[in-house]
Amino acid sequence: MMTKKIGIVCYPTVGGSGVVATELGIHLAEKNYDVHFISTTMPFRLKKLYPNIYFHEVEVSNYPVFKEPPYDLSLASKIAEVIDREELDIIHAHYAIPHAICAIFARQMAERKIKIVTTLHGTDITILGIDQNFNQMIRYAIEQSDYVTAVSESLRQQTEDALHIQKPIDVVYNFIEPVDLYTLTNENLKEDFGIKQHEKVLIHISNFRQVKRVDDVIYVFKRIQNQIDSKLLLVGDGPEHSRIRNLVNDINLQDQVIFLGRQDNIHDLLTISDLNLLLSEKESFGLVLLEAMVNGVPCIGTDIGGIPEVIVDGENGYICDVGDLEDITNKCLLLLKDTELRQSFSQHARSHALNYFSSDKIVKQYEDIYMNLIN
Ligand code: GMT
Q: Which intervals hold domain Glycosyltransferase subfamily 4-like N-terminal (predicted)?
């Protein structure tokens, strides 16, 4: 069989979608596909050198006549160039806009016939709430794609409701690599961060956008640490970061909250964590939940989007209403005070992540989609 060539278009450094796109590319390369990333920057998780992974840089020109550099146009022409030169079979676009739209445009320019797979990650649909002008364009991106996937059932439903489209959308969940439990690369991590051995550790990892409601994490933690010796790790960076820092100082939590900024090794940070909080008001999936769960960390999440498809309420974590700080606090305390309960949730969290969301299972679903389109 001829080696199949897959082009992946993504924002390689943006949160979960970048992680999923990059890890998918790595898995495909390991299964002997040729993988061509088409993007502005090298995917950040691409640490190892693979002979069959190629990176095609999209250079965004800064012509004086444009107010903004035309990323979309540069991307479309790069995709078209790569389709023909590398003889691609599939373009897998992560995000309907701009990536699927650019891929559709590129397909019209290129000479070679290719198929387009589009994965919706949620943010496209969120944009509709902000700007209805995109309605028609997202619908076009979906209808012109040869196959469309959404990362959760909730996102699939939401997309169909918002756009009234007939085209089937398939749910392919995000995935996680199985990791070894409790293997710390730094045994003294707690000590290094000034966390006492008996103190409980809560963690929140996000891109600090407003939708993540990091304030809620802080106010819940304030209530918790009134009752239990604990520390809060805040991992990530984004538009709300400075405001959250000020809030932490204003309510006198600066000695209990540890700001870590962007971190590569979240495995170690999760290994020293007792509980993960994701209290967003919008979240199509919440990849960070899987990252926590596979490390045996139970999660408290909100009753929105794909979160209840990942956390099984009362078994490996708890689901609470958005902004219900009292309920969230009580559920956290329940788990933090009862070691046996937390251990049981921890085991269930890991087995749930591995049983339903492991990379081998989900990557195979994408592979089947590609093969059905190519053959
Ligand atoms: O949440 C973000 O702001 C980043 C965005 C992204 O592009 O990674 O996240 C979206 O895609 C992730 C991967 O599929 C999902 O895990 C996130 O839930 C989703 N974010 C939203 O729906 C807000």
A: 14-177
Has the ipTM of the complex gone over 0.95?
yes
> Whose alpha carbon is nearest atom 2 of ligand 1?
15
Q: Is 307 in the pocket of ligand 1 (CB under 6 A)?
A: no
**DSSP secondary structure of 127-182:** HHHH-GGGHHHHHHHHHHSSEEEESSHHHHHHHHHHH---S--EE----B----TT
At 235 the pLDDT is 97
CB 84 within 8 A of CB 90: no
Task: State if residue 16 touches ligand 1 by the CB under 6 angstroms criterion.
Answer: yes
**pLDDT mean for each 10 residues of the chain (375 residues):** 91 84 95 95 77 92 73 94 98 95 97 97 74 85 97 95 91 92 75 95 96 98 97 97 98 98 90 97 96 97 98 98 98 98 98 97 98 93
**20 close to ligand 1 (CB < 6 Angstrom):** yes
What is the value of pTM for the model shown? Answer: 0.94
342 neighbors 59 (Cβ within 8 angstroms) = no
> Which atom of ligand 1 is found nearest the CA of 282?
23
What superfamily would CATH give domain 5-175+358-374? Glycogen Phosphorylase B; (3.40.50.2000)
Are the folds of 5-175+358-374 and 189-356 the same?
A: yes
Whole-number Å distance between alpha carbons of 116 and 186: 43
CA of 18 to the centre of ligand 1 (A): 9
For the chain, the structural domain boundaries read 5-175+358-374, 189-356
Ligand 1 centroid to Cα of residue 287, in Å, is 8
The CATH homologous superfamily to which domain 189-356 belongs is Glycogen Phosphorylase B; (3.40.50.2000)
Q: Which two tokens stand for residue 238?
A: 């984004």
DSSP letter at 210? Answer: G
**Pocket mutation for ligand 1, best pick of 13, 17, 19 (most atoms within 8 Å of C-beta):** 17
For ligand 1, say whether the CB of 288 is within 6 Å of any of its atoms: no
pLDDT at 172: 98
